[in-house]
Design brief:
The complex is a heterodimer.
Chain A (H helix, E strand, L loop, with lengths): L1 E8 L4 H14 L3 E6 L9 E9 L14 E4 L18 E6 L13 E6 L1 H8 L6 H12 L4 H11 L5 H14 L1 E5 L30 E5 L9 H5 L5 E4 L2 E4 L9 H5 L5 E5 L3
Parallel strand pairs in A: 1-4, 4-5, 5-6
Antiparallel strand pairs in A: 1-3, 2-3, 6-7, 8-11, 9-10
Helix pairs in contact in A: 1-4, 2-3, 2-5, 3-5, 4-5
Chain B lengths: L1 E6 H11 L4 E4 L6 H12 L6 E4 L3 H14 L3 E5 L1 H16 L5 E6 L10 H4 L7 E4 L3 H16 L7 E6 L7 E6 L2 H7 L18 H9 L26 E4 L2 H29 L8 E4 L6 E5 L2 H15 L4 E6 L1 E3 L3 H10 L2 E6 L9 H10 L7 E6 L9 H13 L6 E2 L2
Parallel strand pairs in B: 2-3, 2-4, 4-5, 5-7, 6-7, 11-12, 11-14, 14-15, 15-16
Antiparallel strand pairs in B: 1-8, 6-13, 10-12
Helix pairs in contact in B: 1-2, 1-6, 3-4, 6-9, 10-13, 11-12
The chains are: A alpha/beta, B alpha/beta.
């Protein structure tokens, strides 16, 4: 049995990714299981999902604790979650990261393959939803599933209008995947567990690493109408000298302010990794 | 026959569609919500010809199904946890009117949103048949079988079939979908026993008019079973035997007992037609042939237990599994038979009757009490409030069962 664990953030599509993967591998004649881990998901918060593959019907009903492979949909996730926890020796990590394997902050007795899935998703789909792109990279790095099967499986999981771009993102990621590299000599990034005694609202925790894209205010264009201030769900916007000022500790990068700004003074820019 | 990787909730929706339920009323609650969503998609897309009634709560959902069923509709509802508790008094009414409503329950603990069986087991005195499923395929098959069991003339009782919330409701795995024609051939359209609408009633309207013309009225039952007191419940007459209505409970109990035979038959017949059956319908034995001891589990715990039993068998340990599928009616004869063969029975309950013990534990212990040479019965609690149950947890319970260790019920996991 092959066990795979997906790490992502709410909104990146980790749950849909495991369902597409399970359907695709089933199309190739193997038994599969796709399990989401449900809790209090919201956009940006760390989530996990699991996939099992076997030659016979799968009877295990627990979560995956010792995966053979780990897929990470977000480049900064390993700063707050130990994504390689329990990963089998000699295992494989496929991570969405713009840099090389050594820059990912993942280190241990396993291999790391990288792909800049966020860039591909933004270019092709227009939104930083990286699940289909990372599946293309998964197909390339593992050889466990064919690209055609994934393209077929997408049809039952996504609305028709989204299929062409997502299949395209898969193909682009398949071609752009960097081959797996041994990670035993790398330096592991420190995992900072952000704890708080306060209720878990944005005021009591720093959510800056939940962001993929950040709003940037063009102060020259801003007319101080407070529209963004009204619409920001995190109250992360204040008015300083009658111009919008964003508190990036509490901004999750949802982009509502940019959508709502009538004078187009707020642009969304990709976060540096 | 098609097959698809689908979540448990979609399997429920497919079963309902294949059974051609034509009246659906449900109120959304996590983790049941997507059942209602899939079904409303089917109805809106024209794939399922049904009246979809949106209601303001679970009591109404159940009462719409009850009244619709009396009028001749094949009905379906679904709920979870607190929604089921809110529905509780209506459950009694549906059972009391012998309306063969079918309901899917995504088990949800009343302590968290995660699964345990306490929600449905708390309804065990409502007079509903209760079936617990271990995988999505069984969910789909049971969803079809439920109608055949409920609508059988010897039963005519409502059926609830359960799937563990999240663990099945949101886990996707391959499920084979039977052909509609085959299901149609196996499951005939529903006819009500109640004379409400002539077109949905399975008696001759002219005969019924004569019955009234002869001045017999409602005090003389008009059903194919008129005169058979076991079936006099089907007449809606509640004063036929004076004011003593205890017979209503007695008749209900007798129907529940008859249901055991019907469940066995329907399960076997389903196997003949669709190639899949589940034990004898009431329970399933797994590797119990030469077992010294067995563990008993319900729902998805049975699935995980199979892996644990296989692992221990590899080590030469003679352990088996009994999957308890039907909690109501309870297969006490089967447990007596198992009790004669094994030394110890370890019951793993994903539920608790607070102040006493695990619910299945109590029932099984009571079943084997009259045996001359009765086995030890041990109780374990696992997976309550959605706590994850790993294979090693079940192995631990199985090892303790093999040792026959005495003691009060043990919490594992």
């Amino acid at each position: 049995m092959i066990e795979i664990r997906f790490h992502g953030r709410g909104g990146q599509g980790a749950v849909t990714a495991v369902k597409i993967l399970a359907s695709a591998i089933y199309l190739e004649g193997k038994f599969t299981q796709a399990i989401p881990m449900y809790g209090t998901e919201r956009r940006g918060a760390p989530v996990a999902a699991f996939c099992r593959v076997d030659d016979t019907r799968i009877r295990e009903r627990d979560l995956v604790h010792e995966p053979d492979m780990v897929v990470v949909l977000d480049p900064l996730l390993n700063r707050s979650v130990d994504v390689t926890d329990g990963l089998k020796k000699g295992g494989l990590v496929i991570v969405n990261h713009p840099g090389a394997a050594k820059d990912t902050g993942l280190a241990g007795d396993f291999k790391v393959a990288t792909v800049d899935a966020t860039k591909i998703a933004l270019d092709v789909i227009g939104r930083p939803i990286t699940n289909t792109a990372i599946l293309g990279a998964f197909a390339k790095a593992t050889g466990l599933v064919k690209l055609e099967s994934l393209a077929e499986a997408v049809k039952s999981e996504l609305p028709a209008r989204l299929i062409p771009t997502n299949v395209d993102a898969m193909k682009k990621a398949y071609e752009a995947t960097n081959a797996p590299v041994d990670a035993s000599g790398f330096k592991k990034a420190e995992i900072v567990k952000k704890t708080s005694t306060q209720p878990m609202i944005s005021y009591s925790r720093n959510v800056s690493d939940w962001r993929v894209i950040r709003p940037v205010v063009d102060k020259a264009k801003c007319v101080g109408c407070k529209r963004c201030w009204v619409y920001c769900p995190e109250t992360a916007i204040s008015l300083v000298d009658n111009k919008a000022e964003i508190n990036y500790d509490y901004c999750k990068g949802c982009g509502i302010c940019s959508e709502e700004c009538l004078v187009h003074a707020i642009k969304m820019e990709r976060e540096e990794v | 026959m098609k097959s698809e990787v689908m979540v448990g909730n979609k399997a429920v929706a497919y079963a309902t569609k294949l059974a051609r339920a034509n009246l659906i009323a449900a109120y959304p609650i996590t983790p049941q919500t997507t059942i209602v969503e899939y079904l409303s998609d089917f109805v809106a897309g024209g794939d399922l010809k049904a009246e979809f009634v949106t209601v303001e709560g679970e009591i109404t959902a159940q009462l719409v199904c009850l009244s619709g069923s009396i009028a001749g509709a094949r009905t379906f509802t679904a709920t979870s946890g607190e929604g089921l508790l809110y529905m509780s008094h209506a459950l009694h009414h549906t059972a009391r009117y012998w309306a063969p409503v079918v309901m899917a329950v995504c088990n949800r603990s009343v302590r968290t949103m995660q699964p345990d069986h306490t929600d449905l087991l708390a309804q065990r005195e409502t007079g509903w048949i209760q079936l617990y499923c271990e995988n999505n395929q069984e969910v789909l098959d049971t969803g079809i079988m439920a109608y055949k069991i409920a609508e059988d003339d010897r039963v005519r009782l409502p059926v609830a079939y359960a799937l563990d919330g999240y663990v099945l409701s949101f886990t996707a795995e391959p499920v084979e979908i039977p052909d509609q024609e085959k299901v149609d051939a196996w499951l005939p359209p529903f006819k009500t026993q109640y004379p409400v609408l002539p077109e949905t009633w399975d008696h001759d309207l002219e005969e019924y008019k004569k019955h009234w013309a002869q001045g017999k009225g409602i005090n003389e039952p008009f059903t194919p079973f008129a005169g058979d007191e076991n079936f006099s419940h089907l007449t809606m007459v509640s004063w036929g035997k004076g004011h003593d209505l205890q017979w209503r409970w007695r008749a209900h109990q007798e129907a529940m007992m008859r249901a055991k035979k019907v469940i066995r038959e329907v399960n076997e017949d389903y196997g003949k037609h669709f190639g899949r059956s589940y034990g004898n319908g009431l329970l399933e034995e797994y590797r119990t042939e030469d077992a010294d001891a067995v563990i008993v589990a319900m729902g998805t715990l049975a699935s995980t237990s199979r892996v644990a039993v296989d692992n221990l068998r590899k080590q030469g340990k003679k352990i088996g599994l009994v999957k308890l599928k039907s909690y109501r009616p309870f297969p006490d004869e089967e447990f007596r038979d198992i009790g004669k063969r094994v030394g110890t029975i370890g019951v793993i309950d994903r539920n608790i009757s607070l102040g006493e013990n695990g619910i299945a534990y109590g029932s099984i212990r009571s079943s084997v009490y009259d045996l001359k040479d009765r086995p030890k019965v041990l109780g374990f609690y696992a997976g309550l409030a959605g706590r994850e149950v790993r294979v090693r947890d079940i192995e631990k319970a199985a090892e303790m069962t093999l040792k026959g260790a005495e003691g009060a019920p043990t919490w594992i996991g």
